[in-house]
Design goal:
The protein is an all-alpha fold. The protein has a single domain, classed as Helix Hairpins (Orthogonal Bundle), CATH 1.10.287. About 65% of the residues lie in helices and about 0% in strands. It is built from 3 helices and no strands. The protein starts with a helix and ends in a 31-residue tail after the last helix.
Length: about 120
């Protein structure tokens, strides 16, 4: 019969392999993009994967302080994601700074014609 310690060691090793594959794919998404929101979601996913690593190491070693570290990292990761989301909201999805001739409609004085071309100057 297989002992419980052997089962825990095998499942921890399997979990570490799966987490390594997940971290490689997520780092690829951070580097590749293609948009800023994709990168922010990938960074948030990296925080979740690292929390998974910490949890597996805590189970493997039996050292419960790692759980407190994982909770702290989860809180910091959440705050970082909120900060990135506010940055994207302020800057726009494309990551470009808003310019004078962007598609944002500006107030028009009475008698003036509105420029209907997007992104071009009149």
């Amino acid at each position: 019969m297989i002992s419980p310690d052997t089962i825990i060691q095998v499942t921890c090793n399997f979990a570490l392999v799966v987490l390594c594959i997940a971290i490689l794919l997520t780092v690829f998404r951070v580097v590749r993009g293609p948009t800023l929101p994709d990168r922010v979601l990938a960074l948030d996913m990296l925080v979740g994967i690292v929390i998974g690593f910490i949890a597996v190491i805590a189970i493997r070693t039996g050292y419960t302080l790692y759980v407190d570290i994982a909770i702290s990292l989860g809180l910091v990761g959440f705050l970082a994601t909120v900060a990135f989301a506010r940055f994207i909201l302020a800057r726009g999805i494309t990551g470009k700074k808003p310019s004078e001739d962007s598609a944002v409609l500006k107030p028009v004085k009475r008698g003036q014609k509105r420029n209907t071309r997007r992104g071009g100057k009149s």
